[in-house]
Predict the 3D structure of the following.
Amino acid sequence: MMEDQKLAPAPVDPVLEPQSEPAATSAEPTEPASTAAPAPAPVSAAVEKFKSCRWRATPEDGEFCTHRDVLPFAGKDGFVAESWCPDCAFYKLRRTPKKRERLDFTY
């Protein structure tokens, strides 16, 4: 019981103690800031809508809308989904085609 009191650090009054480098005098190991995982940036509704739109270009071509009425105005360089996608009248959800059952029909 007496040994526990010797190992515990003495309480420090922050008013009386002058401010010094706390990291250098600390005996406890500090974790580097880089080990914490960065929080993912929140994605807006317009960007989510653009990512699922059927008029979005393939990722190899770039990030832009390929619709014939949008492309001349928005262009391929510097496309901003916030400007076009929140209330896009041409939006249709991109769906993955379902695999159809093969039926051997002879015509």
Remarks:
- The longest helix spans residues 45-51.
- The CA atoms of residues 57 and 63 lie 6 Å apart.
- DSSP finds five helices and no strands in the chain.
